[in-house]
Design goal:
alpha+beta; ten-stranded mixed β-sheet; 18% helix
Length: 492
């Protein structure tokens, strides 16, 4: 099978451009304004297009306060933004479009149902899980399979992808997508596929964190290997407010407000704060479990988690404070049963065995594989509880007070193992804790405070940065915050 690829460039924001049946990538990484257009002797834009239907100065990408915008510079043929023609505005006033990961810009014909072969397709991407985009010419064969098994035409080597996950058929010159009874599901333009779907020009196909786009007779897709974890930022959240119904007052009760934070991939993060400060609410917003009433956005590896939670939830694990397992089973048996429940039903025994062995090693439980769980220590039981979620290869783990009831030695051992897991596997791990004795084992601290009965962000950064911010140790910072919480609200 022939594939075409382009240079992979690490960047927080980039464009994937498809024109003349070729893919290329432009990293928007060293300045805040980029002109898009056709090169002429009198004009040399930053991003050069060759299409004759593109203007010399067709559009402009602008970076302002952590956001990217696109402005059509009054081009003759205009620009489509997610399928809608951009309105230049009254009297030629330019109207910028704020860009989010996955947004598509097009320079094309007036009728998108009859696209111009000279058209240009541009994907805006920020920290998407796959960086290495490829293309295949679909007319090479009538049937294309996608899945985990090595016999597929497009191999997606991830444990949560089914062996044969989906397929594309070419029938009478049209392309049709079918889900092959996968566990995690198949999606087109954000909607889950429950029956065979006819694919249209520029349709976006998603299998968890794998994405592909139909362009003419080509499928463009991001190739994600077993060891890839995407960009530097796992979670980027700007939660303006989170409200819930207030039965007593027949209105809305605000739980948290003005929480703007980033969590890097491969980091162990502590969520701190007194009672009612909003720790659990923040965690459940960051993991997508509690997004009703949220004003703002939460991005998971650049994807809008609130809008795409049903597709991305397979990558996120939550571990409750209480241990949930069968105490009469051995550690190995419990993890094997959990893997059978959480992984696709077509996962082979050898694959389950390999996954269990990997998790036992990651959580330092190899010597306990044949030990009955009820005979394990408290710290070992906590790690078994975490291992049950980890067998399905989550990219984000959220733990609610996993150190509760543990002695000081077991607590330190647990956090040391979690730190190693985060650093070596690229997973991001969020932990709600109260005891800060081992806080220096954490890469990042998110501290919440309660002001006027609303959770507010007091600090987000490393333990060293926290001590500088509060002017004292983390332990003493609790006392300072309790005395005057309003003083320590983080102003973004």
């Amino acid at each position: 099978m022939q594939t075409e690829s382009y240079l992979e460039i690490p960047s927080e924001a980039r464009l994937i451009i498809f024109e003349n049946q070729n893919i290329r990538q432009v990293a928007l990484d060293y300045k805040n304004e980029w002109i898009l257009g056709r090169k002429t002797p009198e004009n040399n834009p930053d991003i050069i297009l060759s299409s004759p239907i593109a203007g010399r100065k067709h559009g402009k990408f602008i970076h302002i306060e952590d956001e990217w915008y696109y402005v059509d510079l009054g081009s003759i043929n205009g620009t489509y933004y997610n399928g809608e023609k951009i309105n230049v505005g009254i009297n030629g006033n330019l109207k910028p479009k704020m860009l989010e990961n996955g947004d598509i810009l097009r320079i094309d014909a007036n009728n998108l149902n009859a696209p111009d072969s000279r058209g240009v397709w541009i994907l805006f991407s920020t920290d998407q899980l796959g960086n290495n985009w490829k293309s295949i010419f679909l007319k090479q064969k009538s049937n294309w399979t996608l899945g985990r098994d090595g016999q597929n035409d497009i191999i997606i080597n991830k444990s949560y992808i089914s062996a044969k996950h989906a397929e594309i058929d070419c029938i009478n010159g049209f392309y049709y997508l079918s889900d092959c009874k996968s566990k995690a599901g198949t999606w087109v333009n954000g909607k889950q596929v429950n029956e065979t779907v006819k694919l249209r020009e520029k349709d976006r196909i998603s299998l968890c964190d794998w994405n592909g786009v139909i362009i003419g007779n080509y499928l463009l897709y991001n190739e994600i290997s077993k060891g890839s974890f995407g960009g530097k930022v796992a979670i980027s959240a700007n939660i303006i407010s989170k409200k819930v119904p207030d039965i007593n007052r027949h209105g809305k009760k605000e739980l948290i407000k003005d929480v703007k934070i980033e969590v890097k991939k491969g980091n162990l993060v502590a969520l701190l704060g007194g009672s009612g400060a909003g720790k659990t609410t923040v965690m459940n917003c960051l993991n997508g479990m509690e997004t009703n009433g949220v004003e703002g956005k939460v991005l998971f590896y650049g994807e809008n988690l609130i809008e795409n939670f049903d597709r991305l939830k397979v990558l996120i694990g939550s571990v409750p404070q209480e241990n949930v397992f069968h105490e009469m089973l051995t550690v190995g048996e419990e993890l094997k049963e959990s893997a059978r429940l959480k992984l696709p039903s077509d996962t082979k025994r050898a694959e389950i065995k390999q996954r269990v062995e990997e998790v036992l090693k990651q959580l330092n439980l190899e010597s306990k594989k044949k030990t009955v769980i009820r005979k394990c220590s408290g710290g070992e039981k906590k790690r078994v509880n975490i291992a049950k979620e980890l067998v399905s290869d989550k990219k984000l783990l959220c733990l609610d007070e996993p150190d509760a009831g543990l002695d000081p030695f077991s607590k330190k051992e647990l956090f040391t193992i979690l730190r190693k897991l985060a650093h070596e596997s690229g997973k991001s791990i969020l932990v709600i804790i109260h005891d800060v004795s081992d806080i220096n084992l954490f890469d990042q601290i998110i501290m919440m405070v309660k002001v006027d009965d609303v959770g507010r962000l007091a600090f987000s950064g490393s333990p060293d940065e926290a001590e500088k911010y509060f002017g004292t140790s983390i332990k003493k910072a609790y006392e300072l915050v309790a005395e005057n919480p309003a003083k320590y609200i983080r102003r973004n």
